[in-house]
Each structure stands twice: as C-alpha cells, then as structure tokens.
Amino acid sequence: MTESLAASIATLQEMIQDARIVAGFTGAGISTESGVPDFRSPNSPWMRNKPIPFEHFVQSAQARREAWRRKFVMDDLYHEAQPSQGHLGIASLVASGRMPAVITQNIDGLHQASGLSEEQVIELHGNGTYAKCLSCGRRHEINWVRRHFEASGEPPECINCGGILKSATISFGQAMPEEPMRRAQKLVASCDLCLVVGSSLVVYPAAAFPAFAKGNGAQLVIVNREPTPLDEMADLVIHAEIGAVLSAFVS
Ligand SMILES: [Zn+2]
Predict the structure, then answer these.
(1) pLDDT, tens only, 211-241
(2) CATH topology of domain 1-36+82-125+176-251
(3) Which residues cross the membrane (predicted)?
(4) pTM of the entire predicted model
(5) How much is the pLDDT for 37?
(6) CA-CA distances (angstroms) from residue 89 to 22, 68, 139?
(7) Of all residues in the chain, what percent carry a pLDDT higher than 70?
(8) What is the 154 CA–ligand 1 centroid distance (Å)?
(9) What's the gap in Å between 136 CA and the centre of ligand 1?
(10) Binding site residue list for Zn(2+)
C-alpha cells in the first residue's frame, strides 16, 4: 500500500467516524472484484448483443425467448460470484449503525449475499436473481423459470395471473422503480456523508443521487479505480482497487 493510499483511508475513517448518517452508493466496480462483468465495459458479454428494449420485450414472444436465453447464458458466467471485500466493508458499515442502507446500481444481489436485508439495499436497476410478473408483480424464482424454459423452449407465464414474466431488472426503456427511487431520495436528503464505491457516475438518473447529497450539504467521498465526472466536487477521491480501500472497514 502506498503512503498516500494509507493516508486517504485514514482520512475516510475519520470522516465516517464524524458522520451521523452515511449513505452508501455502489456501482459495477464493487462487483467486478467478485468476478461479475461490468455490463457497460467494452469487452463485456452484455455488449455483444444489442439490448432488447422493454417495449420490444412486452410486444414480442420471440424477443422474450431471446432475452431469457441471454439471461441464462450470463447467469452461468457469474453464478459462483461471492461478495468482495468491498461488499463486506459496506456490510460492516451498515452493521455499525452508521449506514442505514446502500443505494446500488447493481443487479447481482451481492449486497444481500454479504448479509444485508432487503430493507438495507436500495436497488435502482432492479435485481437479476429473480423474476417478476409485469402484470401483478408476483415474484418467481429464476431456477423455476429456467427449468420451464429448458423443458419447453418458452418462458412460463405468471402462475398467479398468466402475465408476462421478466427478470426483475430495469431494462432499457423501462421506467425507474418508484419505491427504490423514493427511498434513495430520502436517504441522500438525510445523510451528512455520501460514500460512492465503484461507480463511474455516468448512468442517470442513478448518478444524480450523490450529486444531490453534495448539493444538500453532505460530504461526498468517491472510491473508484477510474476518475468520475463528480471527482471535482468531491471532498475526498480515492482512485484505487475497491477491496484495498474497503477491507479497512471489514469487521
Ligand atoms: Zn401475474
């Protein structure tokens, strides 16, 4: 560890200790260290195919078959992913009582896998570890959908209402989920420190939350391997591996 990284971590520890409410905010970088590919990176398996817009998914059975086929291929790439030091560091901050919840752009469920409850994770882009009915909202397990799909070549219908099942993620063209957006807004409005971990802060509206926290008087800390557009307004920026920084908080 370089001297400057150690000094930055010490500063971050002090800032967290002085804060009353810390809002966590995480992006793909925290999960790439778990082996989950960043779907926006140029070499990502996601980028080999043009995304299926939400409208197309709803209108076309063929698009739905293709979406599910791709989904299962991707799942096989990272089904053994485990929480990283970054996830564990965030989980420790939540357990300490200082961080009421973490807002995440990720859909991989790894914050929950690190021990956080559903209430402690605010998912802006949904969750790819289960499916939801687009009509009645009923949750269906992915493994059940997959068994059905592999047996018949078609995704099953909702067992409750016969509606269309979709992985519980937010697709291109799909509205942002209302309740998580509300909860995220409430958290950033109440925090006095916003800790951004592993987000390039270029995907909106998600990236607006840290900017709002800063504008509302909170301190802003950004931990990311690469520079972000909000670095200039941040009180502390650490460009390093997530695990190298957050492991200092794992208890
Ligand atoms: Zn339904």
Answers:
(1) 999 999 999 999 999 999 999 999 999 999 9
(2) Rossmann fold (3.40.50)
(3) none
(4) 0.92
(5) 73
(6) 13, 33, 29
(7) 95
(8) 17
(9) 4
(10) 133, 136, 158, 161
